[in-house]
Design a protein that fits this description.
The protein is of the alpha+beta class. The protein has a domain of 192 residues: Beta-lactamase (3-Layer(aba) Sandwich). It is built from 10 helices and 14 strands. Strands 1-9-10-11-12-13-14-2-3 form a 9-stranded antiparallel sheet, sandwiched between helices. Strands 4-6-5 form a 3-stranded antiparallel sheet. A two-stranded antiparallel ribbon has the order 7-8. β12 and β13 form a beta hairpin. α1 runs antiparallel to α10 and α2 runs parallel beside α6. The longest helix has 14 residues. The two termini are 31 Å apart.
Length: 361
């Protein structure tokens, strides 16, 4: 898992502005027609592959698709048990919401990404974890030992075994009542900044830092999320989950409707601006669009967002079972997909999403 030299800020693709005359979807989503270059029949046929009467079995369960072009919804489809008002689970897309919350606190002068992470348990004189910064955590280069494998360990697997899933144990086992505490207790394996290791535990440590800065109370965190991020952009269905210790489980658990996920994507596609107001600093959004590392499968990671190498400037939130909020600057596009795809069939929705996006090129 390789650390990359990021693209200079001045070479990032330009983010599109909200077109004149298109209302911001703070209350209701404006709808529009497909651009002339998109064949409606071809798009409809693609959508039918996932949502039609005889869907491709490779998708598993398809819950929702929302396509936003130039600020308007131009295509939308839901599964049998879902609709525009159905809150759906984020899984790891919540990590990108964590990014937004930190950005707001940085804007307020309450957190410093370059400062060492304010975790008391790491502050021993000889503890190598004392050198971990908030920025290391955001880029998943903290160096902590954490196995993100989602396979359930067998009953006789020892926790010291390399096959042990720290993610499963944190979310559903010994760590579930205090997810951040579980992750904080992981030992250092690498020097901070030297190795990329995607880790849900890391996101929950950041969630603890956010919670502590806001007073350590889950209701204060919930209010902050709604008052500073969700409500200003019209998100009314957000339901974050907290563990027994009062920490937002920011690695995995946030429910919102597909339309509200599209609002979050549009916020980032617009550089953190919403109807004349800065919600997330532009520099913070730009930083998440720079790839800082690449994993063993060739996927490029920014700062709690994934980054494409498709020539479009694409960047996206990603969650287990192929949850996606994809922002495409070159064509002013946001594509939201929510569903449940088995891991052995991940290529089916991945290729399908690429085909939908390519229609707008």
């Amino acid at each position: 898992m390789t650390i990359l030299e990021p693209v200079p800020l001045d070479q990032l693709p330009t983010l599109p502005s909200q077109p004149a005359g298109v209302p911001w979807p703070t209350r209701d989503w404006p709808t529009g027609s497909l651009p002339a270059r998109v064949d409606p029949a071809e798009l409809e046929a693609l959508i039918d592959r996932a949502f039609g009467p005889e869907p491709d079995a490779g998708f598993g369960a398809s819950h929702a698709l929302v396509v936003v072009h130039e600020g308007r919804i131009v295509a939308e489809r839901y599964g049998l048990d879902s609709g525009p008002d159905t809150p759906l689970l984020s899984w790891s897309m919540a990590k990108s919401v964590i990014h937004a919350l930190v950005g707001i606190l940085v804007q307020d002068g309450r957190l410093d990404p370059a400062a060492c992470a304010p975790i008391d348990a790491w502050q021993g004189a000889c503890d190598p974890r004392a050198r971990i910064t908030l920025q290391h955590l955001l880029r998943m280069t903290d160096g902590l030992e954490f196995n993100e494998d989602y396979a359930l360990p067998s009953n006789d697997t020892d926790p010291s075994d390399a096959r042990w899933s720290h993610c499963i144990d944190m979310l559903f086992g010994s760590g579930m009542d205090d997810v951040a505490g579980y992750a904080i207790d992981r030992p250092a394996r690498h020097e901070p900044g030297a190795v990329f290791n995607y880790s849900s535990g890391t996101s929950n440590i950041i969630a603890r830092i956010i919670g502590n800065e806001l007073g350590g109370n889950s209701e204060r965190v919930r209010s902050f999320m709604h008052d500073r991020l969700f409500q200003p952009i019209g998100i009314r269905t957000a339901d974050p989950s907290f563990d027994a210790a009062g920490t937002f489980v920011g690695s995995s658990y946030l429910h919102m409707t597909a339309r509200d996920w599209a609002r979050f994507g549009l916020l980032y596609l617009r550089g953190g601006e919403w109807d004349g107001e800065t919600i997330v600093p532009r520099a913070w959004v730009d930083d998440c669009r720079r790839a800082w590392a690449v994993d063993e499968e060739g996927n490029r990671y920014g700062t709690h967002w994934w980054v494409g190498a498709d020539g479009r400037g694409s960047f996206w939130c990603s969650g287990f079972e192929i949850q996606r909020v994809i922002c495409v600057p070159s064509t002013d596009l946001v594509v939201v997909r929510l569903g449940r795809t088995p891991q052995e069939h991940y290529d089916t929705p991945k290729v399908w999403l690429e085909q939908i996006i390519a229609l707008f090129d």
